[in-house]
Each structure stands twice: as C-alpha cells, then as structure tokens.
Write a structure and sequence with these properties.
The structure is a homodimer.
Chain A lengths: L5 H7 L6 E4 L1 H5 L9 H13 L4 E6 L12 H7 L6 E5 L3 H9 L4 E7 L2 H8 L3 H18 L3 E6 L12 H14 L3 E5 L7 H14 L1 E2 L2 E2 L2 E5 L7 H10 L4 E4 L19 H10 L8 H15 L7 H4 L13
Parallel strand pairs in A: 1-2, 1-10, 2-3, 3-4, 4-5, 5-6, 6-9, 9-10
Antiparallel strand pairs in A: 7-8
Helix pairs in contact in A: 3-12, 5-7, 7-8, 9-10
C-alpha cells in the first residue's frame, strides 16, 4: 500500500453528511413481547423528532393478530406530532396500505425478500406474487399522492439459502422501480453481511440504478449487528456511496434465529461515530442520548447500545485522587 | 464518488492476511474480580493455541497486590505448552521483566501512555520517567536474547485530557524504537477512536517509522468497543496498512470509566468478519468458537461477543414448518 497517496482516497470516500432513518419504533418495538402503551410509543417518537431525527418508521400496518405489538398502528400514526419529520410505516399488503393512508402516513414501506425461501417464510407467497400484489398498493398510493419505498430483505444473505446472487436483488429492485418505488432499502436481515460484500453491493446497485448521472431511486441500507460487524458494514457502505442508513435507537431489534444476539445498528452509536468522523447527521446527540436513556428506563430494559453506557468520547473524566 | 473507479481502490486497500494477537488471558482476565484457577487459564490458553492463534499475551508480571488476578503469572508462563505459539507477557517494570524472563516468556510487553495524566494515573510517574526506567528492561532483555515490544496507551484519546496530539505518540514511539523496541502497539485504551482518526494515525505512524521502504518496528493496533466502533476502527486500520491487531476472545475486557460497557474487540467476531472478507488469519474459526463457548461455561459468564450467540453466517437454518 502506498501510504503517501492513500490518505486522500480514503478521506475523499467519506460524505460530508448522511441521513439516519430511525426504525426502532417499528423494527425495535415489534420484537418486544409485552405490549408497549401507545402513549409511551408516541412520547418516544416525538422525543426522537425533537432530537433532530428527520425520518422515522413509526409502525407497521400488519394484521393485529400477526404482530400484536403493532395493533395500535392507526391510532399511533394519527396522533404523532411530526414537526417536519417524515413519518412512514411498513405495509405488508393492500389492506395495510389502506389503513396507513387513512391514518395520514407520509410514505409507505413495502417489504419483499431477495431470496425465495425467505419471502415464502415471511409472507407465505413467492417473490413474484409479492411483486404482483404491490401493483395495487402503488396505484392506491399514487392516487393519494403518497410515495412508496420498499425494503428488500436478505440482500446480503439468506438464513435458509445462504448466498443471495446480486442478480436477484437487481431483478426485484428493477421491478419495484418500474412500479414507481422512490427508495430501495437494502436489508441485511439476519446480520450476514461483511464489509467487502457491502462495498460490492453498494457500488453495483448505485451503478445499476444510475441514469445519466442521477439515480432512478434513492438507495438506503439497513444493517444488523448480529455478528458484530454492523458498524463496519455501515462504514464500508458509506465509503462506497451510500448515504442513507436505517438504525434503531438503543440498538433495539433482533434476529429470530439468534436469541440474545444484538439487533439493528444502534442509532446513537452510529451518530456518535459519524459525528466524531465529521460526518453530519442533523441529530443533536446529547439530546438523543437523553431520549434513549429515558426510553430505557420507561421500558425497564438494558439496551444493547454502547454510548449510553460509556458516554460520549468528548466527555472527560476527573483525575482519580491518590490516597 | 466515481463508482466506476472506486471499487478497485477499496478492494486493493485490503490485505490478504492479518495477524490476530490474542490478549484475553491478560487484558480480559485481569478485570474479572474472582480469581480464575491457574489450571483453567492454562487450559484456555492451550486451547486457543490449538485453534491456531499464533501470538498470545498470556499474563502480566505486575505486583500481585496491584492485580491479584495475575498473581500466578510465574507458574502460568512456565507451564503453558506453546506449540509454536509466541507467548508474551506484560511487564510494568524491571522486577516484572526479571520474573518474566525467569519464567521463560518469549517477548516482553512494556506499557506507557501517550498522555501525561494517564501515565501518572496508571503507573504514578511521568512519561519520561517511564521511558528512562525502560532502559534497564531493554538491557536485561537483550542480554537474555528476548525481544521487547511496547503498548502505547491513550493513542486515540485520553479520558482525562481528551485529544492526544500525534506528536506525543511519535515522540514516545521514537524513544522506544531507539531503545530497541521491535513492535509498537497503539492502543485505544478507553474506546475513544473513530475510523477517520484511525486512518490518519495508521498512515502517519507507518510513514514515520518507514526507512527506505521497510519499517523500523512492527506496528499493531488495539481497539476497544466501548462506544460500538471497535470493528469499524479495525476495518479502517486494515484499509490503511495495519495488519496486526490485538483482540480478546469473547470480547472480554472493559473500561474502568464505563461499567457495563463492551471491552476489547472480540477475537472470534473479528476473525468471522475477516474470513467472510477473504482476509486470512490462520485461525480455525469453528474450533475457536468451541474454545470460547467452553470458556464461557467454565467461567459462568455471558461474554459480549456476538458470533457465539448467532453462529457463523454460513450456518444455515432449516425452513420453519408451516402449521
């Protein structure tokens, strides 16, 4: 390696700013077994907005029997004071989309897997059947003037199939973009990604959806820390052109195949690292840390996030007294 | 970012192989309050060696009253069957060095901080007094034909002073190299580093100690996951020319200023990520995971490491049965 010339290349690969998309109220809360009061959920969401979070996935309009934790989706989405924050919600199907639009959600988030077995396991239909069913959702949303994004699951590996060919991801992505999808969110659903792979996927996807220098759709990425590589994957993605990341406050979330394993990349840990690297997020970190600490107390849990335990790197300690 | 040309730069920044230096038996065990039986320590160390670890910091020859956990340093170092693994030990001073050489340790590891207040707090003397005291250790070791390395603490930030100027690190490094130090181990003692800073320090130090294209001393780095950025820092260091890393099995270790915070970068999580990236370590990962799981049971603890909870990314799951 040429030490003399590498510095600028490495530094130039970093953006000045990235967008942090908070998904804790959906992806984090949905795995918690005890129902969380709607008022507490709303308080957390509104506090996150006040801390500067500009996009939040607030809930999921799944069937209440499938995910009882999300049974308050309608009331929650109607009640949250958005104050300029984009509040979007996951919708599994047309009925969910109807409910979400009724509740005034500003963007819909569809979900489909890049691997056949995972899609079958997750929504009991083939990838093509999922994509076909989305036509009606796109139609409905267009009529309401509400944009639709989509999360593609198992992009970096499938827990049932292993490696997922990039062609599968691109095929699903193109179908979604043809239907009018404004954002593709590429998910490492069970934490199988590694930084070299992330670099390849990032460049491949950005290249694939570029048209005359502009992107046909926004690209976001969603990493889990299931095997400890979440933050390294985020760094790699950022170095390779991705500037939108889904993260979860406190590191809430999880993996059904790994009880006790870490969940999503932790919002405040990511923001802490990014700010220390001079990459802006628009988030007020001390305020965010207060929100997370209050949520931890209110939920009576220990979150996996690290910065709430250690404090920020800029917070100095008094010299220990010698006895 | 130019997607067309960046790929090769990113990939070319990765080495084919790195060296993993296991420090759990010293840096991990020393923070555990209950004394661990010497026989168990030896069993863990020998199992790590059998899993392919090629360098291990086995203990510390500190005064038994200062760190009671390390009171068996002499017996342990004498007993371990090395089988080709380099077993080195921390020595705080001349007395420790004499004990370590007596016990047949193959390399000594000195420690000095890059920040004055941390050195004062850690060893109750100035940096210059520490460096002066090392002269006798280097002399003794040279007489015994045993090489000396040194760990420089607080390279990436000091919990009492904050930012640590790179000039402090280089000054300490040069003094050590002049005395004959074969390896500088740059430590993020309390987990304050970020990947951009790591890139700068890595390039600066590699450049500073290069003489006609070869390094005057080996360079290793030691990261903590105190604020969640440990693996991202390791990735950044590796992309910027560092190929030796100290890690701790299970992620054992910690930070006196952050109770409950994560410790060192976890050996098996790092090895998992590196192997998935096609960066070799010489370690047999399945065997390492067995060792760590057995150690976790024997110590009756839950380690912070992730891969022991989630399994390797290549371990697939059966499709869930539909009822």
């Amino acid at each position: 390696m040429d030490i003399g010339t590498t510095p600028s290349v490495w530094d130039e690969s970093l953006p000045d700013a990235v967008e942090i998309i908070e998904v804790g109220p959906r992806d984090g809360f949905q795995i918690l077994p005890e129902f969380i009061d709607t008022s507490l959920k709303i308080r957390v969401i509104e506090s996150l907005i006040k801390a500067g979070v500009q996009r939040i996935e607030v809930t999921s309009f799944v069937h209440p029997k499938a995910v009882p934790q999300m049974r308050d989706a309608d009331e929650l989405a109607e009640t949250v004071r958005r104050n300029g924050c984009q509040c979007f919600a996951m919708v599994p199907n047309l009925i969910g989309a109807e409910r979400a639009l009724e509740a005034g959600v500003e963007m819909l988030n569809l979900v489909v897997s890049a691997s056949e077995t995972h899609n079958q396991s997750n929504v009991r239909r083939s990838i093509d059947d999922s994509l076909s069913s989305f036509e009606a959702v796109f139609g409905l949303a267009e009529g309401a003037g509400v944009p639709v994004r989509a999360s593609i699951a198992t992009v970096f590996g499938c827990p049932f199939e292993g490696d997922v060919p990039i062609d599968n991801v691109l095929r699903v992505g193109h179908k979604l973009v043809e239907m009018g999808c404004v954002e593709l969110n590429l998910c490492d659903t069970t934490g199988m990604a590694n930084p070299r792979q992330v670099a390849h996927v990032a460049r491949w996807v950005l290249n694939e959806f570029s048209q005359n220098g502009t992107l046909a759709t926004s690209i976001a990425m969603h990493f889990h820390n299931t095997r400890g590589a979440g933050m390294a994957n985020l760094l790699s993605a950022m170095q390779n052109g991705i500037t939108s990341f889904e993260t979860s406050f406190g590191g809430l979330g999880g993996c059904p195949f790994a009880p006790g394993a870490a969940g999503n990349v932790c919002t405040e840990d990511a923001v802490h690292m990014l700010h220390d690297m001079d990459v802006a997020t628009g988030i007020d970190l001390p305020r965010l840390l207060n929100v997370v600490q209050q949520a931890e107390q209110a939920l009576d849990m220990t979150f996996p996030g690290q910065v709430i335990k250690a404090g920020r790197s800029c917070e100095l300690h008094p010299l220990p007294r010698r006895t």
